Structure formats: structure tokens, C-alpha cells
Amino acid sequence: MTESSKDLSDRIWDIFSSMKLGLALLGIIAFTAAIGTVVPQIDQAPQKAEAVSQLWITMGFTHLYSAVWFRFLLGLLCINLIVCSTQRFRGIYKRTFKLTPPSNLARVPQKNRLVIQGELVALRESVQEVLIQEGFRFTLSDQPDHWSFIAIKRRLGNWGSLVTHLSFVVLVVGALLGSLLGFKGYFMEGAGTTLPIQAIEVSKGLISETFSVRINSAEDRLLPNGERDNWYTDMSILESGQEVARKTLSVNHPFKYKGITFYQANFADGALFTAEINGKSSPVVLRDHRQSFYQAPGTDLFLVTNLERNLAKTPSVVFQVYKGTGNEPIQTGQLKSGETVNVQGAYSLTFDGLAGFTGLQVKKDPGVVVIWLGCGLLLGGLLLAFYWQPLVISGILQSESGKQGNLTVGALSGKMTDSTHKALEQFVSSVTKMIR
Amino acid sequence: MLESLEIAMFYSLVIATTLCMLLYFVWLGSKNELIGRLATYLTIVALIANVFAIILRMITSGHAPLSNGYEFLLTFVGGIMAVYLFTEFRYKLRSLGAFVMPIPFLLLLFIIMSMGPDERIAQAIPPALKSQWLTFHVLTAMFAYGAFAVSFSLAIMYLLKFSKKEDEKKSEPKGIVSRFPSLERLDELAYKVVGFAFPLLSLCIITGAIWANYAWGTYWSWDPKETWSLITWIIYAGYLHARSMYGWKGKGAAWLAIFGFVAVIFTFFGVNYLLPGLHSYAQ
Ligand code: HEM
């Protein structure tokens, strides 16, 4: 490596180890994230997002959170955090596991200091006694001209901020895994239908799995008081025609199979028919409000339906048949449950009753476990940083005259000056009590 | 029956909050110990009324208080009072009351002025909101936001005292601010309160993400409310860093704490009332 390239890599390292850069990045990320809540986003308000001026669309402001430059900012922040953490690792390790007792008076923390006078041996013994009682870990140093100690409590607290910082990187990695290896899709199907997983509409990623999904039933269940209980879907997974798993899912109770999760997202009403063509009958499920159609095989006849919502106990439907691309129905009618009608001499149609249509969100996200790991680390790190603050007390005992001496103790005041001071006072009073 | 009891609790809360706020003001000016005690007792009464109102609401509706803005504000008010009372007792800091209590007072005033009775009644919640994670979500939000309100008030006190000190040059300030704790102490307390709240806000965001993942399969969807809670989180992260690394104690830190609370308020009011909301179930 040449001199100048070493310089350059050093310079880059320096830039990324700066906390100023980190805080600036955080600020920029917060600011741009805020812009995204004002400019309409494609995911959330597609029509409005398209109405935004072309320049903004090109710059990615209408899909801000997935825009390249936004991800670039997150990437920079991650590099920044990794560099910072690497640099601080040794220091934290030393402050936690390699504490050295003070070798002279100047090494005892100056701001928070107290002095105890007493007999040398008694002081030494009571200091050790108190340290053990209060659960400190400590190191002693016995020198000809002095005796000193350093003690630490809640030492893992030192790692809090490092763990917090790395957790952020873990979170970003988790999100990245999800967007690289996962997919997101949606389908709405009526009870009784089977569809291959590859056939669902995907909004992100690609599906490589090959099993099929059968909707056994879909139900909109109400509570006795008329409020909605939940939507329920009884579904099966078929591997080459064989049922290999079955489960009833509902909102907030998803179903997972081979890393793919099905979430109850929606529900719609529909009707179940039987169509009989040349002696062969097959089930047909159609969504209410003409949201789906049935094209009888070998014909250009299209069937749609509307549910009748009346007070009668027996459900009924209105059906319409269109031919080709015609705008006007060529046949309409109403059917009660169990009734049959002949459609254009091509097939006979029997209305069997109501059927639910279930809308399922389908997702594969191998990053989710990493996300939960990151969340756990984040919380653990924060708890260590704020609720488990280490306390470091050190002291040096110097003889004054013969058997008498001065013990100077001090505590490193971390972020909480007054609580450190209290802890030091308490330590001193315990030691004083013991030598009396 | 329970409903009318809840309404009675709500109005007791309003009255107790108003009175204790006024008493804290009077105490600040008069130094009368009796008035100070009364103010504290009334705050306790207000908190009890608040807790009962929330519990009654949970009994009648059968779910955590999250079906509308009224329920959210009620828990917010409860969080502020709980954290405030803790701070007052722990740090013997009654002068803080005069700066904290106007916040719940204004929030309650907002409920009374802007929400009709039909906006306050318990509403049926959609299936998606039936999740235990949301209970934790609300609980952590309550204490985190309550604590941020308290740190906001501490920052205001800091700035008031600071500007008085500037005016009077070297001499110790007189008047009301002389009853405040020292500048260093105000600063450190604000930091402690934020340090308490920051992990809670993180937990709040995380439980929200876990719930969203159960409900729709996305732990984070960048909807405006989520984004604003993230922005709030970043501002407070900035506060913690600026303070511990650059020794940005004092004025700068106080302004950041104020800024952070503005973001908290915006996350609720701004997102619900100004931005095209998607978190629509919260409205
Ligand atoms: C993702 C956002 C970040 C979060 C949530 C975060 C969180 C924290 C927390 C909780 C602490 C402990 C603070 C305290 O005890 O007062 C801390 C300290 C620190 N942070 Fe960050 N931080 C973030 C980003 C950064 C960045 C980008 C840098 C710089 C590159 C950085 C550098 C530091 C340093 C040097 C400390 C001091 C550690 C100490 O006092 O022992 N942080 N951070």
C-alpha cells in the first residue's frame, strides 16, 4: 500500500468514526422521514402520489422510504455505527475487565472524593469487607509505600451503548434480508377454491414455492351484541394434491407454513353456485357486487352476481349474463337458495347459498427473526445503559504516621453525578462504621 | 351505571386538575406550605380519578383504552400525573407542578372543547386491534409520553431561570425562579427523566411493531404515525448524545428536550388532525 492510499483510508476511517457525522446523519434521516409524511406516498395514497410534480417523483419523494438515496443514508449510518463501535470496543473492554488500582493519589477521581482516617490494617480489612458485602468485583494492589484498590459494580452497564448501537445495524440487516429474500402478496378467494401459491398477486419479490392453497370456508362472525368478533378462514395447504396442513386463521392469528405466513386481512360476501355442463357439475363462487365473474368453459358467456340483502330468511341473488364484450346483459334473473336456471341453453346454474370470500395477505420475510433479535438487543442495550449504570470506586491508602493512615476514595462520576456521590458517601459510611 | 360513574370520574379529574394547577401557581407565589400540600393532595385525587375513569372504561368496553382519541388522551394525562407525582416525591420538587399541570389541563380542555359525547363513548374495535401487544403498547406510551412532558417542563424551568440569571448578571436571581432548584439540578433531572423514558419509547415502538406484524404481516410500514414516533425517538437520541458527548448541558439540551416534546405532541395531534391520516383507527 502506498503512503497516500493509506492516508486516504485513514481519512475515511476518521470521517466515519466521528460522532458528528453520526448525529448529522440521524438528523438528516429524521428530516427526510418527516418529508415523507407530508408528500403523498405511492404505497399509501397512489392517486395523490401520481399527481405530485414529475421532478419530485423522479427524485423518489413519492416512494421515499424505499428510495435509493434514503437507503444510502441508512447504509452510511450503519457504517458509521460499526466504525464507532469498533473503535470504542477496546476502551470499554478495559474499563470493564481490566481495571487497575490507582498507583498514586492523582489517579483517584478528583471530583468525587472523600478521605477516611484510621488505622491501616483496620481500614484495609473493612474496605474489603464492605466491597464483598455490597457485591463489588475488585482488584487490589499492595505496594511498599501504599495500598490501593479499584472496584466495580453493575459492570455490564458499560456495554449498554455499544449493544444499542450494534442493534441498530442488526435491524437494518433484518430489513435488508426481508426485502432481498422475501415477498409480499395478496389474494381474495371464495370458500371452496383452490389456487397455486404462484398464482397470487405479488407486490414485492418472487415466489419460488410450489404448493397450493385451498379455502375450506370463510366466515364473518359476529358477537351476540352485534359487534364483529373476527373474520375466520379455514384453509389447507396442498402439496401435489395432498393436504399437508390445515388451520383456521383470523385477524391477529396468522398461519405459517414453510416460512410463508398467511394473514387474515379482508373479507367479502359472495355466492356459491353449481354449474352443470353436459352432465358434469362444478362449483362456482362469485363475489358480491359483481366483483368477480365466471366464464363457462367453451362459451363466451360471463356470469356476475349481486346478493340480495332483504329480511327474508332464505338468501337470494340477482345474476346477470353477458355475452362477449357486450355492454348489456343478455339474461338476468333472481335465484333463491336451491333454485336452478338454464343459462342460454349452455349450462344450468344452481344457487347453493352464501359463501364467504377471504382476503389474505401472504408474506415471506426471512428477516423478521433478525428484526426481533435487533429489537431485543436494542432494549437490552438501553436497559443496560440507563437502568444498570456501573459504579466504579477506587481508593488509595497511604500511611501517615506509623500505624495510622489516610484512605482517599473516589468514584468516577458517570452521567448521574449526584447518585454517584450518594453511593460514594454510603460506601464511606459503611467503612467508617466497620472500623469503629 | 358504570358509564355514568365514568363520566363522574372524568369531571372529578377535570376539576381536581384545574384546582391543583391553580394551587401550584399560588404556592409558587406565596410559599404557603398548606397550599402546597393541598396542591399535591389534589394531584393525587386527580390521578386516582383518572385511573378509575380508565379502568371503568376498560370494563365497559372490554379492551385497552385505544379505540379513540378520548381514551388515548385520558391515558396520556394519567401518565403525566403519575410521572410528575413520582418526581415530586422523589426529588422534593413541588415548584415543578406549576409547569407540569398546565399540560394535562390543556389536554382535558381540548377533550371538553373539541370532542362531543359521541366521540368520547367507547367504540367497538375492529378485529385487528384485539391484541394483547397493544395493551403493552399503550402502557409504555403512557409512561414514556408522561415522562417526556415532565422533562419538557423541567426544560422550561431551566430556561426561565437561566434568562433571569442573565438579566441580573452575577447576583442570585430573586422572585419565583429563586424557588427553583439550581440550574445544574434541573438539567440533570431532565436528563434522568429522558433516560427513564427513552427505553420505554423504544419498547412502545417495538410492541407496536410486533402487533403490526401479527395483524398485517408488516412490522414497519412507514405510516405517518409510525414515522413521527421514529422522529421523536431520533430527537431524544440526539438529546442523549449531545448531552453526554459534547457536554451540551444546559441551554442547548433544554431546547432539545422542548423540541422533543413538540414532536410527541405532533405525533398525536398533528398526525391525526393535520396529515392525511392512515392510522385512522386512532381517530
Ligand atoms: C441509531 C441511533 C442511535 C441510538 C439509538 C443511540 C443510542 C445511544 C445510547 C442510548 C447511548 C447512551 C447514552 C447515554 O448513556 O447518555 C449512546 C451513547 C453513545 N453513542 Fe449513540 N446511538 C445512536 C447513534 C449513534 C451514532 C451514529 C454515533 C456515532 C457514530 C453514536 C455514538 C455514541 C457514543 C460515542 C456514545 C457514548 C457512549 C458512552 O458514553 O459510553 N451513537 N448512544
Features:
heterodimer, A: 436 residues, alpha+beta, 7-stranded antiparallel β-sheet, 5-stranded antiparallel β-sheet, 37% strand, elongated, B: 283 residues, mainly alpha, 10 helices, 77% helix, globular, disordered C terminus, binds protoporphyrin IX containing FE
Quick structural gist:
Chain A is α+β, with helices and mostly antiparallel strands and 436 residues long. Chain A is built from nine helices and 20 strands. Classes of the chains: A alpha+beta (436), B mainly alpha (283).
Order of helices and strands of chain B: HHHHHHHHHH
Number of E-type strands of chain A: 20
What is the tally of helical segments of chain A?
A: 9
Oligomer: heterodimer
Q: Ends of chain B: how far apart? A: 26 Å
- Share in helix of chain A: 25-40%
What is Rg of chain B? 19 Å
Overview of this protein structure:
The complex is a heterodimer of chains A (436) and B (283). Helices cover 34% and strands 37% of the residues of chain A. Chain A is an alpha+beta fold and 436 residues long. In chain A, α2 packs antiparallel against α5 (68-97), α6 crosses α9 and α7 (160-181) runs antiparallel to α8. Chain B has 283 residues and is mainly alpha-helical. Chains A and B meet through α2, β8, β11, β18 and α8 of A and α8 and α9 of B.
What is the element layout, followed by pairings?
The complex is a heterodimer of chains A (436) and B (283).
Chain A lengths: L2 H14 L2 H20 L7 H6 L2 H5 L9 H30 L15 E7 H14 L3 E6 L3 E8 L6 H22 L1 E8 L3 E3 L4 E4 L7 E11 L5 E12 L2 E9 L4 E3 L2 E18 L2 E8 L6 E2 L5 E8 L7 E8 L7 E6 L3 E4 L3 E18 L3 H20 L3 E11 L2 E8 L5 H19 L1
Antiparallel strand pairs in A: 1-20, 2-3, 3-19, 4-6, 4-18, 5-7, 7-8, 8-9, 10-11, 11-12, 11-18, 13-14, 14-15, 15-16, 17-18, 19-20
Helix pairs in contact in A: 2-5, 5-7, 6-9, 7-8
Chain B lengths: L1 H29 L2 H29 L7 H23 L5 H4 L1 H13 L2 H4 L11 H36 L15 H34 L7 H23 L4 H24 L9
Helix pairs in contact in B: 1-2, 1-5, 2-3, 3-5, 3-7, 7-8, 7-10, 8-9, 9-10
Bound molecules: protoporphyrin IX containing FE (HEM).
Protoporphyrin IX containing FE sits at the interface of chains A and B.
